[in-house]
Write a structure and sequence with these properties.
The protein is mainly alpha-helical. About 65% of the residues lie in helices and about 0% in strands. The strands form three sheets. A two-stranded antiparallel ribbon has the order 1-2. Helix 5 (about 135-165) crosses helix 7 and helix 24 (about 545-570) packs across helix 28 (about 650-660). The longest helix is centred in the first third of the chain and has 51 residues, at about 50-100.
Length: about 725
Amino acid sequence: MPSFVYVYEADLAPLATAAESWKALPAKYESLHDEFTRRVITHLEGHWEGDAAEAAFSTMKKARKQYEDAATEAGHIAKLLNDAHGEFAKFQKQLHTLIDEAPADGFRISDKGAIEDVDERWNSPTASSAEGFATERKEALDALESRMKRILELATAADEAASAALERDANGDNNTSFNTSVYTSLDAIEADQASHLMKKKGRLTDVEFDRLNAVLSANRNDPEFASRFALRTGADNTLERYNELVNPPAGTHLSKKELAELKSFQRNLGTTLGTATRSDDNGKPNPGITKFQNDLLASGQHEFNANPTQSAYGLNGYQLTGSLMSHGKWDTDFLQDYGDDLITAEKNGTAGGGKNPDAYWSGDNTRTSGLTNIVALDPMAGFMEGLGHNPEASTEFLTGSTTVDSEEIDRLDYLLKDRHWPEGAAYTGDAKHPSGYDNLGHAMESATTGRSNGDEDAAPVKHSPERAALMHDIVNTVGAEPGMLAEDGRNALRDSLGNMTADYMADVQGAIANEQGTITPFGADADLDMSKLQPFLGAVGQDPDAYAAITQAQQAHSAVLMQRVIESDPTQMTEALQNVAHPGAVVAGIMADGRTQAIHEAHSASDADYNNAVATTDKWVGRGLSMAVGGATAAASPAAGVIAGFAVADIQELVVKRAQQDTGAEANSEAAGDYADGRKAIGTSTAQSLRLAYQAAGLDMTQGDINVDSGTIERTAQLGYAEGATWNSSVNDK
């Protein structure tokens, strides 16, 4: 790997000069070709005959072809050198930028690449001992080191590719002719290097694996590299090598570092293949990529053997492809085809023998996920994660149906209600999230919000009719049977359902306001039914993260709604303010009662869980404000600053103060104490939101008038809170 000093200080001017010099050579060779033809061949033709003439003309034609080939080779080398210069210059600039930006974050990078934390707060015993400070600085330092390492890794990949390309047989066989097949880009040589390693017979050495992983890591989002790699490697070779790597020989002991490297390889290979499936040929479908996709589908039920010399073991094509699909963004049409195939395989494979998917995919417990436990035995988990990264694909899939033996299978019903989801890390490939419902939640979240799961900085996307209709169906399905979320496995859906609800907060509050018509949806209307919405909210709110998302979005949305009323200056100002404050308070009451049930009755969470979630899941304040004003501002966190006159941090502070409780304390050990505290908190925070709304609107009002309105809104919020909490409690008691 090129050192930090080398990349930082390298003088790239000679490389640029060399590229320019080679660029000028084709014209010179072409000129020599033309002059040789004119002054020698043309001059002799018609004036020289016989055996000697024929031999001479044959030799001269070969010489003329050499001029042509020399011009071609020179042009290719010029392009390669220019490509290399561009890559090296880009990485050098990124390194310089990294060094220039470091001081603003309290770091210093030496001329040798050493990073030093020079944050002045280390000099203050009070500041440096503050809770979370050391962790915060360690995470920031790690992030900076990762950025630097990534730049150097990319520079290394480019350097090795350029070296390989320039060392390639530049003069043809036996140095007797010029080589017109010289590489013209680093992408091409790197793709061929990676493909060669993927197709190599026998297991890769550690050095070969590291090289393969590094090349994929450097180029995984590059369409030119990805498509060439996929076409040169082929679907079967790709799955064969991947199966072999994640299933090392029996008795192999892998260290934590080696397991981390395999997981990195899974991410890099999956992202590369996803990029390949979305590549095209000058705006037209690439026939080769279409064949590659079809070959992946055809390999679904093929059993790949990772150990042909001893007892056979390995995984099938669906499992391997599904595992890779959990990374990167894959082609929308391919995802539809893969999902149809998967459902068809499950229905046909489980119906006859009365099996569940866990028995089917585990081969009745004869198949293991290998020593690495990286590939999920249940390919549906990886497929759902793949949908989560592609909102267009997830919306299309979850709103459609699959035909199996003339039977129309509603995909959402099958996945949410009918399918038995295997539990355990072996089935999900993730020890931290052993439920495939977690992956299903990511797909539903992507499908209803229009944002890729995990993309925290994505701007809010206005709801399309298809996405709003899907949200309507999901609320109705869960609301009709809220107890499903208390079941093992399905409770993993709650955090995603909470994010979805926060994204549809305008629809939620609009449904509660009902005939008022003062709250408009963010895009298409989900047309939520209160008889299903209320039990849905109560069930979802029992998850701390869902509670935090909904609570923050509700508070932010209510604040903007009150500002809108103030700016519109209606005849009945107080009544109009009450109409928009009441629905949000009802939501808060339902959420609070759900929280109480989780803590006091289900014992599924603690105050600390809820308080920590509210304090750390802050993105929904910015999103809530942004969606309430029409989504024009991409605001995912308090770092977004000011939206529609509101300081995002101010609304966040209100949410935290309202939500923080300690039911373990003697005075609040009963649910009644929680209720009283929550009722008081929602009144206070809503009144403060109104004060902020007046401030944001910039109206010239006396403090007395503001106090009167704030008092009225405080009582309205308390009544709404009581309504929501009482209703949710009564439903829970039935």
